[in-house]
Amino acid sequence: MAASRHRRPGRTTAITTAAAAVLTLALTGCSAVDKALDCVQTADSIADSVTDLQQAVENAADDPTRTGQSLDAIERNLKKIGDRTDNADVNKAVDDLGAAVDNVRTAVENGDRTPDISPVTDAAGELTKVCTP
Hints:
Blueprint: H1 9-58, H2 65-84, H3 88-109, H4 118-131
């Protein structure tokens, strides 16, 4: 007696669907990791720009344009993070740092050669904290 072999179409479909789900989850996980790495890298660039800002403010008498250049660099990096994330904590940290940068820029434009940049450094520290996976 010959045994008949039947393929169950439901089983093949279930396996294919499960494989697709696993692949989707893996790709989504990688995407989240990529976003986190982008955030960390950009936050690191912002930290470097904040260091440049501190040095520019300390040496404002020698080169007053460096302060503006440092503020511009921070804003460019903030835009990069803001464009790449939908994380509420990261967006709040980006907004807070943007506001602090705007305040320093306004102070400089109003003639303050040594503006208080501690809100910028504090906000940059918070951004680094929320970007760390």
